Amino acid sequence: xxxxxxxxxxxxxxxxxxxxAFTVDCPEDFNFGYDVxxxxxxxxxxxxxMIWCNPEGEEHFFSFAxxxxxxxKTANFLASCGIGRGDMVMVILRRHYQFWFVATALHKLGAVxxxxxxxxxxxxxxxxxxxxxxxxxxxxxxxxxADVCERAEGLCPTLETKILVNAASSLDYLGADGSPxxxxxxxxxxxxxSGAEGICAAPGAREGWLDFNTSVAAAPxxxxxxxxxxxxxxxxxxxxxxxxxxxxxxxxxxxxxxxLMTAKHWHNxxxxxxxxxxxxxxxxxxxxxxxxxxxxxxxxxxxxxFDRFVADEMLGLVGKYRLTTFxxxxxxxxxxxxxxxxxxxxxxxxxxSTAGEALNPDIFDFWQEKTGLTIYEGFGQTETxxxxxNLTNSTPRSGSMGKPVPLYEVxxxxxxxxxxxxxxxxxxxxxxxxxxxxxxxMEYYRDPEKTAEAIYDGWYHTGDTAWCDxxxxxxxxxxxxxxxxxxxxxxxPFEIESVLxxxxxxxxxxxxxxxxxxxxxxxKATVVLAPGHTGDEALTRxxxxxxxxxxAPYKYPRIIxxxxxxxxTVNGKIxxxxxxxxxxxx
Length: 586
Hints:
This protein is α/β, with parallel strands linked by helices. The strands form seven sheets. A nine-stranded mixed β-sheet has the order 4-3-13-12-14-15-16-17-18. A five-stranded parallel β-sheet has the order 6-5-7-8-9. Strands 19, 20, 22, 23 and 24 form a five-stranded antiparallel β-sheet that branches.
């Protein structure tokens, strides 16, 4: 073990073992590919970096030496395509192991990686390719995303290179009986590709595209370190905003180091453990939980390359691979509650965590009862690493997102910039003076106006609202635009949604404000019912009474609308603005 996690940070603890101070020291020439992946590969080559598997039975165990080997070959191939320092490269690879080869290789080259979801449509892709000036695309052949790319490329003059990754383990290549379909893909697929000989063994063929697997397998192994600078752009994400076009969030290499806060102090990752974060590589949560911080801790990550979430499959992985730490969104924790928990071997788990949306108290209580473990909630954004959270050795409060992490100075502020009183709702802001701390975005790329709207007067303004209790715990209220002002009250949608979700009839819900001639705005709940329930007047009265009994009466939804599904972003966040706009037009 190299103790890499101690090289780049200064940290101290109190007598209770709780983190008290944390700063990042990022050398100007720091490069995650060379200084983390290659360092471990050279000095502890057999240390396990990733266990990768899928529902079709393919399984791979990658050591850090393997990751160096494959990332060097990938870097040589990409360099032969003309990809180098500063080039923008969009990567759409779902949960394929090739993502880790590509990500590490792009860092070594000094290129800028732009992860993206396979769910993009032509308009989405055109906006992203042109917005970032993308030079190359590295795309999975699963689904129709390659078709979407081809329809958009004629409108994107900066795009020069398209590279296709054959994910031959996918169900796309299996027949109805589960056996390989020889007419669908060349070569072996599924379980037949398990082991070292199966890595990048399935070629891909599509006119106008370069074949990633074949090219990387044939590429030279030796790759010499190239000059890069930590202060240069390394990673770009398109934010998952619930309204308007997404912003381009740009990060430098200090962002990778700042994720030690995420992995070590929130996920509680240990060097000999196996960590599992359920996240597609198209979203920021993947590098939060499957890459930077975990490998800085020299730990192994599990990646399960699935198409459809099946709760029993996820729970079965815990015992099979002896997972120690596990993180997923509250929605997935809730779905797994429906499984027969005692039938699964969860004994290897020592720590649970969640992020992506606020954690409802019923989920918190259920898992504590079933496993004896507390779910540690964390809060952060595409623009940051974890900034508020229940860190290791802390005592979480059910429903609270925790306290500010020691990396950041956080305040809840009023619109005039003054600090809110205890219990008063305001905007969560992070200090960027005298020096912007590691992990906070460089800027919104090519958008100085939006950057100035978010970073000003010495603070980064998150756009999220919360209130702070007398002990320093923060309680999430909602996005600035989501807060409801009714009859002089400021009402956060999350609290009402949490109460409604505890009712057996409610599967999903969104709380918004609707114009009201008497109150200015009335509270409305848009509800997706659980199976076996009918959205009639009797249920409406029951749900209204349910909310009144568990929270302040003025917060209850005066209007309840029953729908088949809620409008969501491509990554599953509820688009309350769509509901509001529809109500205003009615």
